Amino acid sequence: MSTAKRIIRPEIQALAAYHVMDASGLVKLDVMESPYRLPEWLAKEVGEVVANLELNRYPIPTANKLRGLIKQTMGVPAGCEVLLGNGSDECITYITTAIGKPGAVVLAPSPSFVIFQMAAMFQHLKFVGVPLNDDFSLDADKFIAAVKEHQPALTWIAYPNNPTGNAFAVKDIERIIAAASGLVVIDEAYQPFADGSFMPRLNEFDNVVVMRTVSKIGMAGMRLGYVAGKPEWINEFDKTRPPYNINVMTEAVAIKLLEHKAVLDEQARAILAEREVVAAELRKLPQLTVYPSATNFVLARVAGEKGAAAKVFDAMKAAGVLIKNLSGGHPALENCLRITIGTPEEDRAMLAALKAALR
Ligand SMILES: *Cc1c(COP(=O)(O)O)cnc(C)c1O
What would the mean pLDDT of 97-125 be, rounded to a whole number? Predict the structure, then answer.
């Protein structure tokens, strides 16, 4: 046995590496990116910002200016603090590390965002996934029973949820918050495409923080996520953060873009309107069950036996369109396809490829 094989944790060896497909030359509708680039005038300004940076210097560890701007532009309530991560993926690690006493339990609906479970495993914590209903709605009674049984230190609620696309009922989430003796993190990665938010209500609860990202509104490449909450939480999470996690380019470019947030908001509005067009077109296809979406993607299940979605996926890819086939992971997602909303032109290409594949 090699030294690596002997030394590396067996559960890490058993993992499949997080796999993202090569999308070169394809219409890319697989990972919930915004299809829109910056207008040229703003891209130029970003270029100037980067050119003027002192790349020889470390970042300012507190990233005070950016955090202040996030508080201002994202509606963070007075008295709350903000933690920055290199993507909200990294915030998940900080939160999990901070609560990770030996024996602590992490709980989340299932299926939901896989990184919740991975972060728990990396910290040697027990992860409990509470199955959603067949239509991916939340069974609040069952979830609360699991909360009572497992007494989780940390409960994740993606609101709206990925990969199912729906937003759970607010009153159910309120009941879970009331039943939880530990921390509840509301992951609002898709808030720009959803109706509700817990951000304005942060001061109502002593066990809730809200996590968000700028990835889905046109800045996925930058890697910037944040957690907002009472200082008694945020200041502790912050101690697990490498001091220079937000690099000078991310900080400076994010400041520039948030100063022009109206541009990003406009793009998000276009995606939202386009989602309704795409969902309506998908609903016309009798072979698909289309689930409600409060995000920038639509989840649809292909009728037929095992492998039906894989066939559609392959045919679409051969026709130049990359979406995500969720089959083969979570059993509830058998024959499910996740389609990110693109530009109207990209979506027309997607729909044409999909219809041809279903024929
Ligand atoms: C995309 C996504 C994130 C992670 O976003 P980052 O790009 O790491 O900021 C977090 N939660 C959910 C539910 C997501 O879908």
Answer: 97
Q: Which residues pair with 127 in a beta bridge?
A: 106
Expressed in angstroms and rounded, the spacing between residue 343 Cα and the centre of ligand 1 is: 21
Name beta bridge partners: 325.
337
* Selection from 126, 152, 156 nearest residue 138 by Cα: 156
Going from the Cα of 322 to the center of ligand 1, the distance in angstroms, rounded, reads: 19
Total Cβ atoms within 10 A of residue 260: 15
Burial of 24 (0-12, 13-18, 19+ CB in 10 A): exposed
Please give the pLDDT value at position 337.
Answer: 98
Ligand 1 pocket, residues with Cβ under 6 angstroms: 32, 87-89, 113, 158, 162, 187, 189, 213, 215, 220, 225
**Closest to 181 measured CA to CA, from 138, 158, 159, 149:** 149
> pLDDT, tens digit, for every residue of 286-298?
999 999 999 999 9
Chain centroid, CA 239 distance in Å: 23
> What count of other Cβ atoms lies within 10 Å of the Cβ of residue 114?
15
| CA angle in degrees (0–180, nearest 5) for 265-269-341 | 115
Maximum Cα–Cα distance across the chain: 58
Which domains are seen in the chain, by residue range? 3-39+262-353 (3.90.1150.10), 55-259 (3.40.640.10)
Q: pTM above the 0.90 mark? A: yes
Q: How would you classify residue 221: left for phi > 0, otherwise alpha for psi between -120 and 50, otherwise beta?
A: alpha
* Euclidean distance between CA atoms 207 and 205, whole angstroms: 6
